[in-house]
């Protein structure tokens, strides 16, 4: 099976653009065409100040010893992606904004995706647009706590994003909804509604 989508971790846009360019060129040499995705956390609030305060709150109880211990473990990993995440901040708390509104604090103690877009809705939407302009068409986003950040993102950022798909590589999603617009899990509607039992 061949690769159809190249997924990168949340590096600064210039680094992502370089990577996308190199991967596209390699694909073209083989007569292939790929699409691109990115994995990021998001910390969005009503104001930039509140978002940065929330980012600081995520790591305020993390000790320097905990960071050093985690970074020592990450240094032994042979994952190129993990090494690139480590290089973004070098284990230092004072160098966590690695690009405008791109914060590497999560990567101090968590392996894998270690960066977050931080800011108010307009700022986060603008940073997402920068990645889209590079060629990123798929975003895998999360935050802490997961559910609360998902709601914030949906309420604050979704209205600012262009969500239409123009490529032919997108599989349309089908939503299974009830009479009031709520999503019903899975592909099958329940045989009886709770109100009827």
How would you characterize this protein structure?
The protein has 197 residues and is of the alpha/beta class. The chain contains 6 helices and 6 strands. It has helices spanning 13-29, 48-59, 64-75, 80-89, 121-134, 146-156; strands at residues 5-9, 35-45, 97-99, 102-103, 116-120, 136-142. The protein starts with a strand and ends in a 41-residue tail after the last helix.
Could you give a short description of this structure?
The chain has 197 residues and is α/β, with parallel strands linked by helices.
Task: Draw up the topology in text.
Layout: E1 5-9, H1 13-29, E2 35-45, H2 48-59, H3 64-75, H4 80-89, E3 97-99, E4 102-103, E5 116-120, H5 121-134, E6 136-142, H6 146-156
Number of helices: 6
Alpha-beta classification: alpha/beta
Q: Tell me the helix content.
A: 25-40%
Poorly predicted regions = none
Key descriptive features of the protein:
197 residues; alpha/beta; 6-stranded mixed beta sheet; 6 strands; globular
């Amino acid at each position: 099976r061949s690769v159809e989508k190249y997924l990168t971790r949340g590096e600064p846009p210039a680094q992502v653009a370089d990577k996308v360019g190199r991967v596209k060129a390699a694909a073209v040499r083989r007569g292939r065409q790929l699409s691109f995705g990115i994995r990021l956390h998001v910390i969005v609030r009503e104001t930039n100040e509140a978002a940065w305060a929330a980012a600081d709150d995520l790591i305020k109880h993390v000790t320097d010893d905990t960071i050093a211990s985690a970074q020592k473990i990450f240094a032994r990993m042979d994952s190129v992606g993990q090494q690139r995440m480590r290089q973004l901040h070098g284990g230092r708390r004072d160098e966590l904004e690695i690009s405008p509104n791109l914060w590497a604090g999560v990567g101090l103690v968590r392996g894998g995706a270690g960066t977050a877009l931080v800011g108010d809705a307009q700022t986060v939407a603008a940073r997402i647009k920068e990645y889209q302009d590079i060629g990123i068409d798929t975003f895998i986003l999360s935050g802490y706590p997961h559910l609360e950040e998902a709601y914030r993102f949906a309420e604050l950022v979704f209205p600012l994003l262009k969500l239409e798909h123009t490529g032919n590589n997108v599989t349309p999603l089908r939503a299974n909804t009830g009479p009031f617009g709520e999503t019903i899990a899975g592909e099958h509607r329940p045989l009886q509604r709770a109100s009827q039992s």
